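Sample entry as discussed:
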Amino acid sequence: MPHLTSIDVAGRIEDLYGAPLADLEAHAQDQPPGMLSALLGMHDALALAERSIAFHRDQLARLIHPERQIGPHEVSHLLDATRRLAEAVAVREAQAKSVAAVLQSLARVPAPTPTPSPPAAAPPLVAPSPAHSR
C-alpha cells in the first residue's frame, strides 16, 4: 500500500466525491455523520500529525544546532522532542494506513445513464359487447 500524505488523501477524497475539499467540508457540516465526515476527520488527523512532525523536527534541529551547547538541562529537552517526534510519526503512519485502506475500498459510482422509459401504454380498448336491442 503506498504511503499517502494529507495532500494525496485530499485529492483522493475530491476525486471520489467530485468536488473540492472545502466544498465537501461545508457540505458535511450540514449532514448527519457518514462516510464523508469520517474521511474528512481522518484527513484532518493525518494533516495534524504531519504538522506535528514538522514542528518537532524543527524543534529538534534547533536543539542540536552545531553552535549550541548541550548540557544536562538540554538533554531532557532533546529526549522530549525526540519522543514527541516519534509519537507524531506513529500517529501519521497509523492514520495514513487507515485512510488508505478505506479509500482503497471505495470507488466513485458513475452517474446513472438515463434509460428511456417505455412508451405509455394506450388505454385498453373496450370491446363492444353484444347489446340486446328492443
